[in-house]
Amino acid sequence: MTPSRPAPMMHPLLRAALLGPLLSLTLPPPCALAQGAAAPAAPAPAAVSHPYLSIEQLRQRYADTASRFLTIKGVEVHYKDEGPRGAPVLYLVHGSVSTLRTWDVVTAQLKSRYRIIRFDVPGYGLSGRISDEAARNVQPVEIAEGLLDALGVRKVTFVGVSSGGTMGMYLAARRPDLVERLILSNTPSDPVDTSHLVMPKAFLDAQARAKANDGFQDRDFWEQYLSFFAGAPGRIPEKIRAEYYDFNRRTPEAHPVALVARIGDGKQAAIDMARIKAPTFLIWGGADPLLPESAADALARYVKNAQISRVIMPDVGHYPPLEVGDRFARLIAAYVEAGVPRP
Hints:
Elements: E1 2-3, H1 12-18, H2 20-23, H3 30-34, H4 55-62, E2 68-72, E3 75-82, E4 89-93, H5 104-110, E5 115-119, H6 132-137, H7 140-151, E6 156-161, H8 163-174, E7 179-185, E8 198-199, H9 201-212, H10 219-229, H11 238-247, H12 267-275, E9 280-285, H13 293-302, E10 308-313, H14 320-323, H15 325-339
Parallel strand pairs: 4-5, 4-6, 6-7, 7-9, 9-10
Antiparallel strand pairs: 1-8, 2-3, 3-5
């Protein structure tokens, strides 16, 4: 294992991709992003020769019969709404540098008895581009809330991983009438410290290649990324690795993390976390190199006014629903049906 190079040496776009699950949570709010206070806009695709994929190409390749599109706050959102209409609703939100496909295994296992709604956070997957106006004026939680309002959904169990969990915390604080349970997986509660990360040479080499290539991450970069953040790399199949490469070579966004929920400096986040009263279940990958079990302890301290339950999976990394989706689905069902069932 070789120690990580100092983060400031990385190309800004590379750094955002490498630490996407959590780095993006520490950036300024959307208005600051629009004013140029955060990561600079990516170079125009025409100026480089890298094999980017347009949103249209990605939709041709990955949209399916369950794909739906809805414009919320001026942003086109790709979502899926599956399962019985009268069943309890699970609202699944992915983390940064990911897509709603994070939840494919969970959805396949649970959609026979739950209504499952999931969406691509704008800037990712098959959702549309983020305009300057949206980056200035739209808060990430408004997208999550607006989709449920448009679908006429009144109660959900919110399930989020990484920054998707951050989105859930803000929604639970803002709409206690809407979020009746909160399930969080490897979600930060403080600005994230990356100084402890120790990366293998192959991953450092992939970063160096990207830095020399205008920040473009090749297929091996995403192989190394997923392996590094997994508890057992062999659990991540080639299909998922190929998808990560494809979705993360989408033509660059001017505002790549404007609608990703972020912790920021932690001050407002701490206030919002203390407002959460919905029963909260932490499903944690204890082998996460970025947010180990101590991060779950910190989160539980912040969400101090909610009933907290937790399961630590010591063999799993940063993306539990991606790495062990079957186990994750069983834990969701156990919590909803036995842990905190409806009165």
